[in-house]
Backbone:
């Protein structure tokens, strides 16, 4: 599915959750008949360049040809950034991220731009990943999160609280490995989360152990992060701003289960 | 109606449902009403469903700021332009590639059409092979071929193929010198038009004179000299008011001059080569019956 098709697929019911690199924006939340359920990843737009160019900052990109994927917020941020800095660029637009990488590899453009998490994923697909680098500049805020269709509030709640359960799980130290032992935890927050105290799944039509099932089978937010995009994955993205509640950066924060 | 015997006495009108013309009219009206009602129903249905799903529709967005850049545009365009303008940018780009495609396809089609009827076996067969090959390959595949297999393999900007320091070809496209017209250039097209008008007048006058007196003058040679000589003369008198802006490698890319992007080239090549031979009415095919219909001695 390319970036343009993703919303139609969700609107038409082809998919029920859109959980990928979709940025939460006003237009998307209010005019497409969709609901954003929360933020799973705080991202920002960056630039991937070939090391041969000898560039160390985005301010040196005046006149560059830039490969972008069409129908993304990236395309809009890029135009804003270059205009605000009085620089020019040639947009070379592709449909899918594979084609965008292809264009970059063939030398059709000097720079590939996307969210930095995406760039990390694309960089390892290059024939020579070491020959390319991600510039330190981040030019936009891109809160990414799961999206559902409007009109099914029960489903909206389930998706939203599944995410919150995973984030709370990390905060209270519940992992897929220790979930079993945690069932007997004295901590009242953990007891509520794992359904030992009260039934918080009832309002969503779920069993009391709904969060236990998620945490024991999928793991908490931190585990999921490490497995899919973090140090345990080929992408090797650091937690950075996506640090859990209780640490200094602490962007990943969920409402309490109560 | 006219062949039917008029069984009814004149003066007594038949009821309207017995009149064929009126009946036809009523059925037409009913059909139109049904179609309109159906359209109303489906439009209303779509609107209901869209609003119940919270999806905003309409053309109001056309006056909103588009916010993205477009690499090639014939009219002024920036990321601050509206969506409506992007539509016209796209429309004009389509017309440009279409227009250039018509010209190139006509030339290729003409040459191949003639070549196919050549008495030279090799030329005729090559032309036939061209037509039979390209007309049976889908256009999209040909565009992909030109873009990915041909233009993608060109060298990078720093290792461009250079043709005499003025033309450069690389993976980013074709770079050409751009003529910059200075003040005073306007005289040249004006003298060109004057020369054409004068030549036509001269040819007509020479013909009349020949008919009247039998004397001939080389009117065509004089016209030729007028049409090409006069503008050239004006150009040198005004001090050649054209400068050429050469493409130059600056920073990342070539700057200055005219850039023809590879996406455009691929589309243009594919369109020209495909349409020159594809449809039965197109050029390479169309000359065949035309030439075959002529007496044998006129055949090429």
Residues:
């Amino acid at each position: 599915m390319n970036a343009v098709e993703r919303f139609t697929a969700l609107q038409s019911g082809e998919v029920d959750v859109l959980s990928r690199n979709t940025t939460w924006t006003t237009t998307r939340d209010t005019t497409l008949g969709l609901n954003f359920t929360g933020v799973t990843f705080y991202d920002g737009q960056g630039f991937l360049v070939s090391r041969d160019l000898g560039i160390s900052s985005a301010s040196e990109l005046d006149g560059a040809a830039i490969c972008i994927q069409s129908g993304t917020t990236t395309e809009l941020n890029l135009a804003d950034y270059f205009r605000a800095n009085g620089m020019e660029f040639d947009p070379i637009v592709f449909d899918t991220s594979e084609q965008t990488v292809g264009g970059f590899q063939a030398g059709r453009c000097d720079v590939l731009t996307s969210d930095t998490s995406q760039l990390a994923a694309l960089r390892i697909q290059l024939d020579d990943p070491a020959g390319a680098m991600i510039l330190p500049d981040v030019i936009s805020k891109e809160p990414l999160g799961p999206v559902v269709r409007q009109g099914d509030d029960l489903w909206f709640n389930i998706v939203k609280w599944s995410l919150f359960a995973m984030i709370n799980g990390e905060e209270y130290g519940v992992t897929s490995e220790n979930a079993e032992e945690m069932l007997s935890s004295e901590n009242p927050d953990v007891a509520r989360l794992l359904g030992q105290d009260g039934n918080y799944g009832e309002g969503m039509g779920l069993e009391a152990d709904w969060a236990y099932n998620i945490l024991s089978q999928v793991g908490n937010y931190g585990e999921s992060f490490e497995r899919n995009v973090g140090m345990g994955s080929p992408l090797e993205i650091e937690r950075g701003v996506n640090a859990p509640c209780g640490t200094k950066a602490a962007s990943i924060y969920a409402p309490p289960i109560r | 109606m006219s062949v039917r015997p008029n069984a009814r006495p004149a003066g007594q009108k038949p009821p309207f449902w017995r009149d064929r013309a009126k009946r036809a009219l009523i059925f037409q009206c009913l059909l139109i009403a049904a179609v309109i009602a159906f359209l109303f129903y489906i439009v209303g249905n779509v609107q209901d469903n869209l609003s119940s799903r919270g999806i905003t529709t309409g053309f109001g967005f056309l006056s909103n700021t588009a916010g993205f850049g477009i690499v090639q545009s014939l009219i002024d365009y920036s990321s601050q332009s509206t969506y409506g303008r992007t539509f016209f940018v796209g429309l004009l780009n389509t017309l440009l590639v279409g227009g250039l495609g018509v010209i190139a396809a006509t030339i290729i089609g003409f040459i191949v059409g003639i070549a196919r009827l050549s008495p030279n076996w090799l030329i005729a067969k090559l032309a036939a092979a061209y037509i039979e090959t390209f007309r049976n390959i889908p256009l999209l595949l040909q565009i992909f071929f030109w873009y990915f297999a041909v233009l993608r393999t060109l060298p990078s900007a720093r290792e461009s193929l250079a043709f005499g320091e003025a033309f450069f070809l690389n993976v980013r496209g074709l770079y050409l010198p751009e003529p910059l017209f200075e003040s005073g250039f306007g005289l040249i097209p004006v003298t060109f038009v004057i020369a054409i008008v004068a030549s036509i007048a001269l040819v007509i006058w020479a013909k009349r004179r020949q008919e009247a007196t039998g004397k001939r003058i080389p009117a065509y040679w004089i016209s030729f000299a007028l049409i090409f000589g006069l503008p050239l003369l004006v150009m040198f008198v005004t001090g050649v008011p054209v400068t050429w802006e050469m493409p130059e490698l600056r920073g990342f890319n070539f700057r200055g001059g005219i850039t023809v992007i590879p996406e455009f080239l691929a589309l243009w090549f594919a369109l020209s080569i495909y349409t020159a031979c594809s449809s039965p009415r197109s050029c390479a095919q169309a000359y065949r019956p035309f030439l075959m219909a002529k007496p044998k001695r006129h055949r090429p």
Remarks:
- The beta strands of chain A are 34-36, 41-43, 45-50, 64-69, 89-94, 111-115, 132-134, 142-144, 147-149.
- The first helix of chain A runs from residue 5 to 11.
- Chain A touches chain B at residues 11, 30-33, 53, 62-65, 75-76, 78-80, 82-83, 89-93, 106-108, 110, 149-151 (CB under 8 Å).
- The two ends of chain A are 38 Å apart (CA to CA).
